[in-house]
Amino acid sequence: MTATPTGRTQTAKQQWAGGLTMFAAVMLMIAGVLDIFRGIMGIARDDVFVATRNYVFQFNLTGWGWFHLILGAIAVIVSLGLFQAALWARIGGVAIASLLIIINFLSLPYYPVWSVVMIAFYGFIIWALCVVQRDTTAGTYGGAPRDA
User: Is this model's pTM higher than 0.85 or not?
Assistant: First the structure.
């Protein structure tokens, strides 16, 4: 156990939970920024990505760019809330990461390797946000011990 600035002690499990929240916040911020850049590339130049002819989900690449840009910007905003340990940010983080997994799945034929990498990123983010339990007494993640 270690002491916090408020004088409370934290167990290793609570420290791990707080670390997972920070992990999710940082990863969501990075992945959101990368999706913003991917969206800008799709909007600015349609010929950046390989276009496939016989794909079930045929959309204009500029449209995909707007999807990535908007969802990436929302992901960055939600990640800022995660740094504050806000409950709305955890719920929003899971929701936005889920949507971005779907968007990246649908854009697999245009940029397959990067889409798979981003799907894995968002999968880790969802996992990190779902395993952390919020401590209602301290108002943070990994706050005071439950038996205190």
Answer: no
